[in-house]
Amino acid sequence: MIPELVSLPAFKIAGLLLVSKNENNEIVSLWDKFMPYMEGNFRADLTTCYGLCLPAPDWAEEGAFEYIAGVEIKPSASTPAGLITRDVPAAKYAKFKHFGNASLVKETFDKIYGGLLKENGLTLAPNPFDMEVYDEGFKPGSPDSVMYVYVAVV
């Protein structure tokens, strides 16, 4: 698996927040809650969603992380009711393609952090974060689905 190196400008997402270790697939439940909200509150032609993964706040238990299931909004937009926002900084990313069911994306993350970054001569950014990107190639539950994992690198 060879990543594509891409640079993205800063952007803002709005979504639902989870702080967890994801030991019981809480992320799946978060998306189940977010999708009906998204369909009723964002424009109909929206095709890209983000699973933004950040370090956990200081108060969280060890091993937890912050995960936001969300969509991009305009920087000047107010926060939609019931959602939180996060500013995603401009960054260089290693972009990895994940084929198949999204429930297996943990295996892709394990490969990325288990050696693929190093094998490809890449170093995590000083304030590391990553995100899942679900665009028009994503087909929930389908073995033909395609999604992307972006890892901030230097």
Share of residues in helices: 10-25%
The strand count comes to: 8
The dominant shape is: globular
List segments where confidence is low: pLDDT < 50 over at least 5 consecutive residues: none
Name of the top-level CATH class: Alpha Beta
CATH fold node name: Multidrug-efflux Transporter 1 Regulator Bmrr, Chain A
Tally of structural domains: 1
Global structural class: alpha+beta
Largest sheet: 8 strands, antiparallel
Mean pLDDT: 91
Number of discrete helical segments = 2
Task: Quickly give the CATH architecture.
Answer: Alpha-Beta Barrel
Which strands sit side by side, in order, in the main sheet? 1-6-8-7-3-4-2-5
Radius of gyration: 15 Å
Distance between the termini: 19 Å
Give structural notes.
The protein is an alpha+beta fold and 154 residues long. The chain has one domain: Multidrug-efflux Transporter 1 Regulator Bmrr, Chain A. It is 20% helix and 38% strand. The protein has 2 helices and 8 strands. An 8-stranded antiparallel β-sheet has the order 1-6-8-7-3-4-2-5, with helices on one face. The chain is globular, with a radius of gyration of 15 Å.
Task: Offer a concise description of the structure.
This protein has 154 residues and is of the alpha+beta class. Helix content is 20%, strand content 38%.
